[in-house]
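cron nightly-structures :: item 1 of 1
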Amino acid sequence: MEETLVYSRSLYDEQNLDKDIIYKLILKHDQTSSKLKKLKDYYLGKHAIENHTRRSNLPNFKTVANHAKDIADTATGYFMGNAIRYPKTDDMDIEDLLEAFDSADVDSTDSDNALNMAIYGRAYEYIYVKEGENELVTRSLEPENTFIVYDDSIEQKPLFAVYYYQTKDDVTEESYYQAQVVTETLQYSMSLREQKKESEEGVPHSLEGLPIIEYRNNRYMVGDYEQQISLIDAYNSLMGNRVNDKEQAIESILVLYGAALADTPEEAREAMEILREEGLLELPKDASAEFLKNVLDEATVEVLRKALKEDIYTFSHVPNLSDENFAGNTSGVAMEFKLLGLEMITKTKERYYIKSLHKRIQIFANYYNWSQIYENAKAIIPQFSRGLPKNLLELSQIISNLKDKVSLRQLISLLPFVEDPDAEIKALEKEKETAQEEPTFSQNLPYEEGVTDGQSEVLGEAESPEDGSGDGPGRANRKATRRNTQAGK
């Protein structure tokens, strides 16, 4: 959980930002960025066990079971495995908006945002005009170097955003912060040192509203595995010690009873080398030798390992998909119960993400002068679809049962392989129109084309024998008719 950075609106002057305040805010955020860096390190497999030390002559395996990455990737895939859909409405044309989103590659940005939310508990998106062009593009920024400052009102409205990084002067060897500060209308570039602070004049960024948007994973901006790090460390330690014990068992200590290996340390080292190479030891008659063995209670260790692993996934609410409970062909309802915890935290992600998406829509609409979309941004309801394998047979049965009870568009949208339900409906209607326009041919049409009116009468009589049978005399008459027709030609 991170404290929200707040600044008094009464003291805030967008045209003349106080550089000392910006510098202090950066220092405050930089103090908490170590926690964010730790979260990223755990995702990348850099865990605390890598710093574990033992005596130089003891084995020291540093096993890393990267549950953090598994949890983050599973939660991200479930939440944003499929691109967000924006359904069209009769009241508003959003085709231009969707094309602008495609041009800005928002799907990739959404995927990066979702992963940052899982790791850090928050994500930041920067919307800007592409250099040398007039199109908007989006980019996901690193939360380690980005923060938003809110006002001190009860609504906590955003005042400005800061993206910074630490650099070094090659001449003076002095470290300082280079920062980009954006407000609702201006953008500043600042070089901030403790004694000297330089800033360019604010440049209009032509985007109404703050172009850096914050996406929260939940209310307190907690990452998906942040509270399980101690359990992950315990699991790594257990597995590392387990391997170390196995290695030590292999290199057991040899104990001699009633005999000495050598008289001097030098002779003992030489004797141990010979013993290691030859594997033979000659002892006096009454002497004996044995290895000291560390008895390992594998059953107890395995119980503890399973308990730790279960707790890691249980308290993260992200299921272990490699668990035996997910094996086999599970029905849709049973799968929903197994994914209930993940579904709950994903719903929370959705709620906060939609709130920020409306800000993105407004920025795009304002830049491209789409007044109707800008004023009714909240009327656009993004649709999320879960990244799960679908049982198409079960889904087809559901659609069949809902026919004439639910709109066709809604039924088609349930199909995972249909990306655009509206386009699919149009294609379906076009196929029906084409099928109606095509002429219907009789099965006997090629045969009847060569038959005269008189012969048709004979044919009609031949095809209606008194006994009602389609074989016998009727079939013979049809053959005779065909011969007469060919002779007439």
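cron nightly-structures :: done
The first helix runs from residue 19 to 43.
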